[in-house]
Amino acid sequence: MNNDLSKIQSQMKQAMSLLKKSVDLSLPLLGSKQEKEVKLLWEEFIQEFLDYAKEKKLKIPFHVFLPFR
User: Fold this and answer.
1) What's the rounded Cα separation, in Å, for the pair 44 and 67?
2) What pLDDT shows up at residue 59?
3) What is the per-residue pLDDT for 39?
4) How far apart are CA 26 and CA 28, in angstroms?
5) pTM summary value
6) Any idea what DSSP says for residue 66?
7) What is 1-64 written as a DSSP string?
8) CB-CB contact of 12 with 20 (8 Å)
9) Contact at 8 Å (CB) between 15 and 7?
10) CA 26, CA 13: separation in Å to the nearest integer?
């Protein structure tokens, strides 16, 4: 695997690990008085990611972000 692909894969693995940890930290708070804030954090995070993906989709010549039409 070339160096750039290796870097991408490594970054994605790190991101997935952090997301899983965030989910695991969030789950116990559901059903608590902090549930609303936890849901808001996730909604804001997901919206920011989707907005970024949509923005980048306009700049790339292939459909990496095809699900984000």
Assistant:
1) 19
2) 66
3) 97
4) 6
5) 0.75
6) G
7) --HHHHHHHHHHHHHHHHHHHHHHHHGGGTTSTTHHHHHHHHHHHHHHHHHHHHHHHTT-SS-T
8) no
9) no
10) 20
- Which structure tokens are listed for 34? 């902090």
The structural domains of the chain, with segments of one domain joined by +, span 3-68
How far is 3 from 31, CA to CA, in rounded Å? 45
Task: Give the tens place of pLDDT for each residue, 3-57.
Answer: 999 999 999 999 999 999 999 999 999 999 999 999 999 999 999 988 887 787 7
Q: Which residue has the tokens 């996730």?
A: 42
User: Which two structure tokens, joined as six digits, stand for 62?
Assistant: 């292939």
pLDDT score, position 56: 77
